[in-house]
Every structure is written in structure tokens, then in C-alpha cells.
Amino acid sequence: MIVRSRPDMQGMATLLITSMMLSVAMVFVLSSAGTTLYQVKRAQNSVLSRQAHWLAEGGLICAFHQFQAQLKTQSTPLFEITAETMPDIMPETKLEAGLATCNQSDDTRQLTVQVAQVHDGRYQFSAASLVAGKARVRLAQQAEILVCRSEEPSDCRVWSDAEKAQAGEQVVLRWVRGSWHDF
Q1: Which residues of 91-121 are buried (b: 16+ CB within 10 A; e: fewer)?
Q2: What is the tally of structural domains in the chain?
Q3: For residues 160 and 153, what is the distance between their CA atoms, to the nearest angstrom?
Q4: What is the domain extent for residue 118?
Q5: How does pLDDT run across 82-107, given as a tens digit for each residue?
Q6: How do residues 154-176 score in pLDDT, each as one tens digit?
Q7: Which of 38-42, 59-63, 125-129, 167-171 has the lowest mean pLDDT?
Q8: Do 66 and 99 form a contact (C-beta atoms < 8 A)?
Q9: CB neighbours of 177 closer than 8 A, spacing ≥ 6?
Q10: Predicted TM-score (pTM) of this structure
Q11: Which of 48, 101, 155, 181 maximizes the CB count within 10 A of its CB?
């Protein structure tokens, strides 16, 4: 007995197998597209995060150099400076005016820089940045004021509340090792 297919059923098996294979291929393509989209978003977030970090680092360096420049250009002789007279010599308003050049704000980026006296010739420099409204970074580092007789690091001492710089000594600002904070 020979079974013959009806003319209206010819190609049904081929059509069924082809549609099943296309369905499986479509599932793989759509899942791959979802994974690729996730990877692209993650890479973009990483780029924004790095940009925010670099912006905050630049803010710290700008604040450091502004502070150093104001320290060098103040009019009081260095040997008359003490911790008590330092706020008079470099008042917060003068310091904030210098730091205003470090602060940035536009449509996609914001940078805010601050400097505050901690103790005994140490200052806390902090910078907060925001990029594209998503990536936020806060960095902080301390710097100390040194009084040096010469260029040699061994001839330098940390400037403290009680002492004055002697004539012929220079005041130097340097970062304190181990004081870096990333919030």
C-alpha cells in the first residue's frame, strides 16, 4: 500500500522545519543584541566615570597650584608668618577667588574645588566632579607647608603653629603621602 500525500499538504514539513530553524536563530540574535547593548552601556558608564575622575584630579592639581601661587605672592615676609597670622595673610575670600578659576560648570560637567586648613600647616584639598549627570567622583588629599633652608628635602621641616620661618628660608607646599581619599 503506497501512501500518497495530498497535493495541498506538499512542502508542509519543509515549511515547518524552516520556520522552527528561523525561530531558534531569531532567539539567538535577540539575546546577543541584548548582551551587546548591556556591554555598550557598561563601557559608556566606564568612560563617564573615568572622565569624572580625571576632572576631579585636575581640580585638585589646579587648587594646589593656585594655593602655592598665592603662598608665594603674599606680601608679608615669610619669616613673619605663623599659624595665627596665616588666615590674615591668606584670607578665605582671597583663597576662594583664586580657586574660582578651578571651578567649572557647563551643560555636561561640573567641578567644585575646596581648600580647608586642617592643623599645623596642613590643608585639605577636595574636588567633586559630576559628568553627564551620572558619574560623580569626590577626591581629597592633604598638603603640608614646609619651611626649607635649601633645595634638599633633608633641609626642610613641617611648618607648625608655634614657629616662624627664618630669614633666608623658603616656604614650600607639598602633598602628604598616604592622604589620598577617593569617595
Answers
A1: eeeebeebbeebbeeeeebbbbbbbeeeeeb
A2: 1
A3: 17
A4: 41-76+96-175
A5: 555 555 555 555 566 667 778 888 88
A6: 788 877 655 666 777 777 888 88
A7: 167-171
A8: yes
A9: none
A10: 0.69
A11: 48
